[in-house]
């Protein structure tokens, strides 16, 4: 197993998305260890749910709908310092901003949904 297993999970604004991801987070927590599992929440309610699960050793937060781009850049700087091995994006639709932000984190591997009808290539 590679030494760096640090994984960032990016959860969008929907509480339903968070609830549906719970079994996968339990699995990752068990196999990677809580110390290697971090969350980027995009809404305060997601942050609160992440804290209550106990699956994540660290929770980063930026609400792009109510916080400035400057705050998003501060969060991005903190994410880049973590040097994530992988990023798991749970956006349920192609989201340009989410994809660019995920790329800017510098994670070695980025995992997300592939959409067969998207005109943009999957990356």
Structural notes for this entry:
- A five-stranded parallel sheet has the order 3-2-1-4-5, sandwiched between helices.
- It is globular and about 35 Å long.
- The mean pLDDT is 85.
- The chain has helices at residues 15-32, 44-53, 69-82, 96-104; strands at residues 7-11, 37-41, 58-61, 86-89, 109-111.
- It is of the alpha/beta class and 123 residues long.
- The chain has four helices and five strands.
Secondary-structure topology with pairs:
Elements: E1 7-11, H1 15-32, E2 37-41, H2 44-53, E3 58-61, H3 69-82, E4 86-89, H4 96-104, E5 109-111
Parallel strand pairs: 1-2, 1-4, 2-3, 4-5
Provide keyphrases for this structure.
123 residues, alpha/beta, 5 strands, 17% strand, globular
Describe what is shown at a glance:
By secondary structure, this protein is an alpha/beta fold. Helix content is 41%, strand content 17%. The protein contains 4 helices and 5 strands, in the order βαβαβαβαβ.
């Amino acid at each position: 197993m590679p030494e760096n297993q640090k994984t960032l999970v990016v959860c969008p604004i929907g509480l339903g998305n968070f609830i549906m991801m719970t079994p996968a987070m339990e699995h990752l927590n068990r196999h990677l260890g809580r110390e290697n599992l971090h969350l980027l929440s995009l809404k305060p309610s997601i942050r609160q749910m992440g804290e209550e699960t106990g699956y994540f050793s660290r929770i980063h937060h930026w609400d792009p709908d109510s916080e400035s781009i400057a705050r998003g850049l501060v969060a991005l700087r903190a994410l880049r310092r973590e040097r994530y091995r992988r990023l798991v994006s749970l956006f349920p639709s192609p989201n340009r901003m989410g994809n660019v932000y995920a790329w800017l984190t510098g994670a070695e591997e980025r995992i997300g949904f592939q959409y067969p009808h998207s005109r943009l290539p999957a990356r």
